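Case study 2.
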Amino acid sequence: MMLKTEIIIVGKLDSQWSDWFEGLEISDHGSGYTIFRGDQLDQSAVFGMITRLASLGMTIVSMTVQNQDNHEK
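Prediction:
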C-alpha cells in the first residue's frame, strides 16, 4: 500500500536532507515553512518521518496522508 504524504513544518530545511527523509521532495514554502511531499510504503514509514522531524525539534503544522491504492482504482 503506497501512501501519498504531505507534511508541512515550521522552519526551513533544504533539499540536502532528502536522503534522510527517504527521498521525499523537500521544498521551501517561502514564508518560513518547509513542505515534504512524496510516497511512503506504509504507515510505519510515515511514523518514521514524524519521529525524524521530532528529533530535529521541528513543529508539524499540517499533515495529509492518503492511500494511493484507493485513488488509482
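The first strand starts at residue 3 and ends at 10.
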